[in-house]
Amino acid sequence: MPGLLLGDEAPNFEADTTQGRIRFHDFLGDSWGILFSHPRDFTPVCTTELGRAARLAPEFSKRNVKMIALSIDSVQDHLSWCKDINAYNGEQPAEKLPFPIIADKNRELAVKLGMLDPDEQDKDGMPLTARVVFVFGPDKKLKLSILYPATTGRNFDEILRVVDSLQLTAYKKVATPVDWKPGDSVMVVPTLPDEEAKKLFPKGVFTKELPSGKKYLRYTPQPE
C-alpha cells in the first residue's frame, strides 16, 4: 500500500515548487525536515495554516528544520495564493513564503505518500489531500507522522513541541511525558539501568513510588 511508516526512508522524489525544481534528499541535506500537505489552494483553513507556519518559520530554522508544503495545484496558483497568505498575516502580498510549496497537480506524490482523504472530494469527484505532517530526521527517515482530516486545521505550536521532543530524545536516553514542554522534567528510558542513569544524569534521577512497587517512573531534569 502507498504511504510511509515510521522508520521508512523518505522517497527521493523530484518536484516543481514555488522556489524551483527540487530533489527531496538534496533539499533536506543534513537537516531535519517537515513536509505538510494541504487539500487545495485558496481555501480558508489552509490559508490560516500556512500563515501560521510562515510566522513560525524562524523557530523551525533555529532547530535546523527545513519546511516544505504540498498542495494539489500548480506552481502559478501557489504563487498567487502566497499573496493571500501574506496578506492574511498582515504582510505585503508577495509571491513568496519562507519555504517552498510543492505543485502536485496530478496527485502523483499525494498517492505515493498516502496523503489522500477519500471523504473529501473536489467538484470533479477527485479525492483531496488530507492534512498530513511528516517529520524526517537527518538520516532521511520518518520520525513522526500526524494525519488530520481536511476539515480540521493543525496546531503548529504542537508540531514545534514534538520536534523539540524528537530532537531531545534522538540524542539523549530520555522520553518526554504527557504535555511535556521544553524545560520540563523528562523520563529516563526503561532500558537504562539505574547505575548508568546516575552517571548520565548528574542533576539526579527521581523515582516516583507506586503501589506496584515497580520503579519505572524515573524523572530527571531536562539534560542540556
UniProtKB/TrEMBL annotation:
The protein's matches in InterPro entries, at most eight in alphabetical order, are given as: AhpC/TSA, Peroxiredoxin_AhpC-typ, Peroxiredoxin_C, PRX_1cys, Thioredoxin-like_sf, Thioredoxin_domain
Q: Cite a GO CC annotation.
A: perinuclear region of cytoplasm
Q: What class of enzyme is it?
A: oxidoreductase
Read off the Pfam families from this record: 1-cysPrx_C (PF10417), AhpC-TSA (PF00578)
Enzyme Commission designation: 1.11.1.27
Q: Which residues form the active site?
A: 46 (cysteine sulfenic acid (-soh) intermediate)
Organism superkingdom: Eukaryota
Q: Which GO terms describe its molecular function?
A: 1-acylglycerophosphocholine O-acyltransferase activity; calcium-independent phospholipase A2 activity; glutathione peroxidase activity; identical protein binding; peroxiredoxin activity; ubiquitin protein ligase binding
* Annotated family: Belongs to the peroxiredoxin family. Prx6 subfamily.
Q: What is this protein called?
A: Peroxiredoxin-6
What is the scientific name of the source organism? Serinus canaria (Island canary)
Q: What is the lineage of its organism?
A: Eukaryota, Metazoa, Chordata, Craniata, Vertebrata
